Structure formats: C-alpha cells, structure tokens
Amino acid sequence: MGCAQSRQNEKSNMISCEIKYLLPELVQAIKLGQQCLYSEESPIKLTPIKEIGGIFCKLESLLPSGSVKMRAMYHMLYRLQQKKRHKGIEQLNLVICSSGNAAMACIECLKLMKQEKKQELQVDQTVSEFLQDDTPTDPGQSALIKDQQLSSKIKPYELLGQLFIFCKHLNELHQFSDLPNVKVINSQLNKSDIEIEAFKYAEDNGYDYLDLQNDVDVFGGYATIGFEIDQWQVLTKTKIDYVFVTLKSGALIAAIAFYLKYIAKNQLKVIGVMLYGSSRREQTICSQIIEGFIDEIMFVTTYEVEKAQCELAKAEEIAEFNSAIAYAGCKKTQYKNSLVVLSGSNVPVSDLSKLISKYE
C-alpha cells in the first residue's frame, strides 16, 4: 500500500467515543438529507454506477452543477430557507469561499429555488386569469398558452437572494458576469485567510456564511451517497469490498464512511486517497469522523492522477483532477470488488485534450 495509514481498532473505538455527543445530530441530518434530496422538487437524481476497467464508478459528475457539491449545497440551502421562512424572511443573502464548484452548485440551487418560489406566487394569479378568460379558443390550447406565459416570466438567471463569492482566482469554467445577484470578490490572501475574510464580511453585513466543513446539513447531503451505494449493492446483488473517495477537506468521505459503517453497518472498507504533498484540516467535525470510520489513507502522484484522467476520458467519462485522485488510488491498489466515487467533471475540454496528447 506504500504510504497508507492503517486504522487500528483501538484507535477507532477511542475516536468514536470522542464524537459520541455528535451522533444524534448527525443521524438526524442524514434523515433530513434523504427527505430533502429524494423529494420531487430536488434536482438530485440517483447517479448511475458504471463499470470502467473492472472498477465500479459512481458518477456524481453527472449532477446538474457537474460536481458532488450539489448534494451538500441543496440540502444546506433548503434547510436554511426553511429557517428563514419561519422568521418571515424570504430572500437569502449568502457568502461563500469558493474557486468554482461550490459556488456553481450554490447558484444552480438558488436558480431552482427562485423558480419554485415564482411558481408558488404566480399559480393562483394564473389560474384566476385563466378562469376569467372569455377568449373563444379551445380550452386545452388556452391552458397551453397560459403555461407558456408563466414559463416566460421565470428568467433562468434569476436567483433567490444574492451571493458573494470570495476567491483568489475563479476557475475559467465558472463565469458569473451575467448573473446580477452574484458578486465575485477577489483576494490575494491565502485560502485560510480568505475564509476568515469571507466569514467576517458575512458577519458584518448580517449575511449567512456557507461553511462546507462544519455544517451538519452538508454532512447530511453527502451521506446520501453512502445510502445509494448501500442500496445499489442490495438491489443488484453486487458485493463491494472497497470504496475509494478523494480526501481533501474530508466532508465528503466522512459522510459516506459514516453512513456505510455506522448507519448501514456495512463491512466494506473506505479508503481515502490524497495527493502527495497535500494536507487536510484537523480541527473540523469531519476530521473526527475520518479518524473513527475510514480504514486507510493512501497517496498518489500527479502523474498517476493525470493518467487516471486519460483512462476515464477514453471510457467517455470526464473527471476533473480532484475527482480522478480516487480513481488513481484504486488503480494503484488493484483491489478487486472496488467502487470509486467520481466527484466532479468540471474541467475544460481543451485541458483534457492536451492531457490525452501528453500521454499518448
């Protein structure tokens, strides 16, 4: 395994005791996440699992925003909206620290919520107008016209509230110049200082700061991946022994591992894959769960990740660099009965073409 860090049973039990006080809240977040993400209004659909080179891949990259962050963001905003409505507040004023994927996921969710809100407000008026319409036309045709009129009033770029994005540089795939309610605030600070700056900005203006590391609703959204993997095994009668997930901030893998190990009582092993030279945060809720429920942590090189991107591309699956880290780890171990969570596909086609040419 190379630089893999095996988890000892004694350590796992000890860490589990440290997070014992969090368990009821985490379990509740997962239940709420399932109710939210599997509702008819949710943009989240069951992402497919495809076999590539003998490895099962869960394609989170097919979600509307092109990344797994859509799960976390929709559940977080849905819950936040509920709390705001309880106080009589409809508009969301949000601050986020992101260079692309999280911000894009947030925007996609806000668009959807805006459409839902406008439909709620306009449906009564539309029905009333329809009933009073004495134009001698076919009723079915009239209903169709009214439906088209309603749709035309919902502009796709309108958001429910406003969003402030703090970042050092924005991924070239994500340009928000045509979104009047989105403001990008560039900073020359390092990432941790930008986060502090963003949090202070939200606090000073009375806005809500979206913390993707320590919010239980984020955890509840990501945990639904574990639910889907567990259900897929049962329905397809497929045995999975290893699940590989890219380990960066830790929120994604912590939620998946927690569901599979604690909720589903699954005996499979969850392996976190990191890039050589990278580090992860220790002072988060997720870091405690990682210590308790992840079986191994392994490392891969940039070369191995880029080769993994090329292999996936040849199989007609686009994976951004961070997403391919997990696949590279799985290829390195050569473990059988493995599943990889492909978390995102937001990579410029030109960059991917250059990469494929490089390794041909």
Automatic annotation (TrEMBL):
Keyword Lyase tagged: yes
GO terms for biological process, alphabetical: isoleucine biosynthetic process; L-serine catabolic process; L-threonine catabolic process
InterPro entries cross-referenced by the UniProt entry: Ser/Thr_Dehydratase (IPR050147), TrpB-like_PALP (IPR001926)
Tryptophan synthase beta chain-like PALP domain residues: 50-343
Cofactor: pyridoxal 5'-phosphate
Domain of life: Eukaryota
The keyword Endoplasmic reticulum is assigned to this record: no
Keywords of the record: Lyase, Pyridoxal phosphate
GO molecular function, one term: L-serine ammonia-lyase activity
Record-given protein name: Tryptophan synthase beta chain-like PALP domain-containing protein
